[in-house]
Write a structure and sequence with these properties.
This protein has 209 residues and is mainly alpha-helical. 69% of the residues lie in helices and 0% in strands. Helix 1 crosses helix 2 and helix 4 runs parallel beside helix 7. The radius of gyration is 20 Å and the shape is elongated. It starts with a helix and ends in a 16-residue tail after the last helix.
């Protein structure tokens, strides 16, 4: 292979990869996640199944990669006000979760992850961890600026904050809207910013006395 042909092959591979991701999203929107197959994704993208399996181990991994591209469009702002930034970010997450082209399919993937270890691993590694890492960086910066206590367990904070949204996404037991996003941000960060208890061993998130 010549030096000139290598970039061309790389471009072809990236074009195929993006076509596969676009096809996976389109099929989810048209048919619902449960009815999507690797064969259908390959046919829609104009590639062979072996091309898909070269990059992803399963249908769930393909769809999650496609979802991550969409979720990555939600920025984690840094205006200097961590509470305002979390209100803005969580509102963006809520808008995505309530989009009929996204939320129901993510819920279906979470359900499949309960009995398919490969999907569970892909869900954690491809979708959840990258989003949480970006938010953790923003909260860590708030700690450095003394807007949040330095002793906070950020993993626990993120679980509480995201968990509230996923609870309503999956159970649909209440409104999932901007007001709820703001409520979650205020409750979680308000508790974090309060004076800590004397015993923190069982309270990774500081609480009001």
């Amino acid at each position: 292979m010549t030096t000139a042909s290598k970039p061309l092959a790389s471009r072809r591979s990236e074009t195929s990869r993006l076509a596969i991701l676009d096809a996976a999203l389109a099929l989810c929107r048209e048919q619902g996640y449960a009815r999507v197959t690797i064969e259908a994704i390959a046919a829609r993208a104009g590639v062979g199944k072996q091309t898909i399996y070269r990059w992803w181990p399963s249908k769930g991994a393909v769809v999650l990669d496609a979802f991550e591209r969409v979720a990555a469009e939600i920025p984690v702002p840094d205006t200097g006000d961590v509470l305002a930034d979390m209100r803005t970010f969580l509102t963006g997450v809520v808008r995505l979760f309530t989009d009929d082209n996204f939320g129901p399919h993510l819920g279906a993937l979470i359900g499949e992850a309960q009995y398919d270890p490969a999907v569970r691993t892909a869900l954690l590694e491809q979708y959840l961890k990258p989003r949480r890492a970006a938010v953790a960086d923003r909260l860590r910066l708030a700690q450095q600026h003394r807007q949040l206590p330095g002793e906070l367990d950020l993993t626990a904070v993120l679980e509480v904050m995201f968990g509230a949204l996923y609870h309503r996404l999956l159970l649909r037991n209440g409104p999932l809207d901007q007001a709820y996003a703001h409520f979650v941000a205020e409750i979680v960060l308000g508790g974090c910013s309060a004076q800590p208890t004397t015993d923190r061993s069982h309270h990774p998130v500081t609480q009001r006395k």
